[in-house]
Amino acid sequence: NAGVTQTPKFRILKIGQSMTLQCTQDMNHNYMYWYRQDPGMGLKLIYYSVGAGITDKGEVPNGYNVSRSTTEDFPLRLELAAPSQTSVYFCASSYWGSGTEAFFGQGTRLTVV
Amino acid sequence: AQTVTQSQPEMSVQEAETVTLSCTYDTSESDYYLFWYKQPPSRQMILVIRQEAYKQQNATENRFSVNFQKAAKSFSLKISDSQLGDAAMYFCAYRSASWRAQKLVFGQGTRLTINP
Fold first, then answer.
1. Residue A1: pLDDT band by 50, 70, 90 thresholds?
2. Contacts of residue A40 in chain B, CB cutoff 8 Å?
3. DSSP state of A73
4. Do A104 and B106 lie within an 8 Å CB cutoff?
5. How many Å lie between the alpha carbon of A113 and the closest alpha carbon of chain B?
6. With a CB-CB cutoff of 8 Å, which residues 40-99 of chain A face chain B?
7. Segment B34-58, tens digit of pLDDT
8. At a CB cut-off of 8 Å and minimum separation 6, what does B42 contact?
């Protein structure tokens, strides 16, 4: 059972570079989320999606973009990377239904230098 | 917008004793879900327990139970008979029951240390 798969697990970017964090889930979940977690802190919501073709901003969307062309995939794009984007990024998914939990990927540790 | 607050950045407890982690939230909705997640050093997010707001009965999962006070917007986690494997960051989370607004909002976390 793959669940939620994130790639890459680690990445070092130079300031101004761009990259895409990949996230795919095989549970046919409606909802998908992107979070960032700074050291010793909680998870802050970047973007989320309630289904293919629908995305909404979370708490900290600046500097990021997302798309949801399929149910399975929810890539996160970083344009013009900045040191403030150094963080651990988590993708999660959940099914619409009473109290269903969110399943998380293993995270991507991104360092911008 | 919904917010979740965990006022205890760190807690510690002796092995086999009981500890309670606090969580408060702010919302104008009447229907929602609340969760406690555990994050060990491996970074994996693990669901500990969930509570539906429409249920008055507090959820229980083995050694883990909650005290859900809807009017006070409080959702605390009690861990009984603490074990070394319980050491982790614990996050409280809120999710609306509205179809379009099902973003999952987390608190800042509480780091729990278990002393042998």
1. low
2. 109, 111
3. B
4. no
5. 23
6. 40-45, 48, 50, 56, 58-59, 88, 90, 92, 94, 96, 98-99
7. 999 999 999 999 999 999 998 889 9
8. none
Q: Which of A42, A56, A102 sits opposite B109 (nearest CB)?
A: A42
In angstroms, the CA A45 to CA B10 distance is 23
pLDDT confidence of residue A56:
92
Q: Which two tokens stand for residue A58?
A: 């979370």
Sign of CA dihedral A31, A47, B104, B86: positive
| Helix (H/G/I), strand (E/B), else coil: B7 | coil
Q: What is the DSSP letter of A101?
A: P
| Cβ-contact B83, B54 below 8 angstroms | no
Mean pLDDT of B58-66: 95
Query: What is the C-alpha to C-alpha distance for residues B75 and B69, in angstroms, rounded to an integer?
Result: 6
Indicate the residue of B35, B102, B108 with minimum beta-carbon distance to A50: B102
* Cα dihedral value A38, A42, A47, A52, nearest 10: 120
Closest Cα to residue B10, out of B96, B108, B116? Answer: B108
A102 and B104 within 8 Å at the Cβ level: the answer is yes
Q: Do residue A99 and residue B52 have CB atoms under 8 angstroms apart? A: yes
Q: What percent of chain B has pLDDT over 90?
A: 78
